[in-house]
Design goal:
This protein has eleven helices and 13 strands. By secondary structure, the chain is of the alpha/beta class.
Length: 280
């Protein structure tokens, strides 16, 4: 009986709970399916709370691996001072400003940061003010704490804490955001660039010098597109046990092909290191 109890404890200790960013989720979910089938690992993947939820789960010990589409912040370290966060970079993505099909067909294909800020804060309320059709703007705002929102707010305001309170309708994950924008006339939102498909279009960014920069792979790889971002697995200390098996698989050639399959850049596509031990 004691041997059975010990074996059960060992099996339970190998459970790998993964939670966080919906952007990273597609890669993690497929990798988990492969490892469950091939190595019989006990891996579950969820997306409660987005990137902030993933970081918090590692911080409070409720999960083994957090998925994040934003870097760890000083606030994360202050909130969990006993946790030795390690962020392992698995690929790169970009946050796009996306619009509905009618906005795109109305002639709006690029915006400046100033125009986006004025739309976000409600000073620009109609697409005709930026060269589009005479149609009210409907802004679907990512929930604060989502990695997508924080990257957007950092670019527009320099610091997410400097972003003003707004009363836009909020959306959560990428699928919900894409569905809302696609089905709403005059819509705009922030979205992972790889999800801008079908009737949802990614706007280019017009820089201060007038240069128009699209959210394409080349501009994301070089960092020329201003809202490029790394994608992470977050752990408490270096990955261990079956959590390390998951992380190592996604860093392997086969795992990196999953990253590319889901529309993101592989590590080799932009010549970056694979792991960053966050300062503690």
């Amino acid at each position: 009986m004691l041997l059975i109890g010990a074996a059960t404890a060992v099996f339970a200790a190998q459970r790998v709970r993964v939670n966080g960013s919906t952007t990273v989720n597609a890669v993690a979910t497929e990798a988990a399916e492969i490892l469950r089938a091939g190595k019989h690992l006990d891996i579950t993947v969820d997306t409660q709370g987005g990137s902030s939820g993933g970081i918090a789960g590692v911080g409070d010990g409720s999960i083994e691996v957090g998925m994040s589409s934003k870097p760890l912040s000083e606030d994360d370290h202050k909130r969990y001072p006993a946790v030795a966060f390690v962020a392992t970079e698995i690929g790169r993505d970009a946050v796009a400003i996306v619009v509905s099909d009618d906005v795109w067909k109305g002639g709006v294909h690029a915006l400046t940061r100033a125009q986006i800020k004025d739309i976000y804060e409600g000073r620009i309320r109609n697409w005709k003010q930026v060269g589009g059709a005479d149609r009210p703007i409907v802004f679907f705002n990512k929930e604060p704490g989502r990695g997508t929102w924080e990257v957007f707010a950092h670019w527009v305001y320099g610091d997410p804490k400097a972003a003003p309170a707004v009363s836009h309708r909020e959306v959560g994950g990428n699928e919900e955001t894409r569905t809302k924008v696609a089905s709403t006339r005059g819509a705009i939102s922030q979205l992972s660039s790889s999800w801008a498909t079908g009737n949802v279009h990614a706007l280019a960014i017009r820089l201060d010098d007038g240069t128009v920069v699209e959210a394409n792979a080349a501009n994301i790889a070089t960092g020329r597109y201003p809202m490029a971002r790394p994608l992470f697995f977050i752990t408490n200390g270096p990955p261990r046990g079956d959590a390390k098996v998951l992380v190592d698989y996604v860093l392997s050639p086969a795992g990196q092909e999953l990253v590319r399959k889901h529309g993101y850049l592989r590590l080799a596509d932009y010549q970056r290191g694979t792991a960053v031990a966050a300062k503690h």
